[in-house]
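Example 4.3 (complexes with small molecules)
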Amino acid sequence: MIAYVNFYIDTDTHQIHEFGCNDISTGDNIYLGIYRNIEIALTKARSIGYINASICKSCNSFFKIR
Ligand SMILES: [Zn+2]
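Answer. The structure with zinc ion bound is encoded below.
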């Protein structure tokens, strides 16, 4: 199953989260767009300057069990 999900990057931690993640901060988040998986969102984040961006562990494990 292919699901398209909204992704955000936390501008403080530079962690990438999917919409609805419990670990996403309520502070400053930048919308990255809709992607099939978090690796694509990571590539996008790096392309716009967040070269140290990383994947949220909660989101990552969530994707693995799908
Ligand atoms: Zn997350």
